[in-house]
Amino acid sequence: TAYEEVIDSLLEGEEVAVDRGIPAVANSEGVYRVIVTDSDGDFVKDVRIQFCSDSFCMMGKTDENGVATFKADEGTVYTAHIMKTPEGYEPNTEEYKTADTYSDVSIVLQKK
């Protein structure tokens, strides 16, 4: 699964330090991915995510594997915000940054 790929990348030392100390893990998928799990480690479906550069924003929603995918150019650090969590999860107002190369950002939601 995508979440296991992120863990494997971290274990292999591929972590990229980004703003606010939140890690983004490089990937070779040609896209940016936001992976959302809950505090039990389960994937969270239907999380609405806003993905922005300084000049534009895109909206996305996580699939059954907790993944929202964004096709954007490399060379820019993007910001991801959770706009809406599904019922049963606490709102999350944190700001998450990508690396300036295709990468995965992992977010953990707290259950209510």
List keywords for this structure.
mainly beta; four-stranded antiparallel beta sheet; 112 residues; single chain
Describe this structure in words.
The chain is mainly beta and 112 residues long. Helices cover 9% and strands 38% of the residues. The chain has one helix and nine strands, in the order H-E-E-E-E-E-E-E-E-E. The strands form two sheets. A five-stranded mixed beta sheet has the order 1-2-9-3-6, with helices on one face. It has a four-stranded antiparallel beta sheet with strand order 5-4-7-8, with no helix packed on it. The longest helix is centred in the first third of the chain and has 10 residues, at 2-11. It starts with a helix and ends with a strand.
Strand content: 35-45%
List SSEs in N-to-C order.
Answer: HEEEEEEEEE
Distance between the termini: 26 Å
Shape: globular
Q: Nearest-angstrom radius of gyration?
A: 13 Å
Please mark out the parts with pLDDT under 50 across 5 or more consecutive residues, or reply none.
Answer: 15-21
Major β-sheet annotation: 5 strands, mixed
Number of DSSP helices?
1
Order of adjacent strands in the largest pleated sheet: 1-2-9-3-6
Mean pLDDT: 85
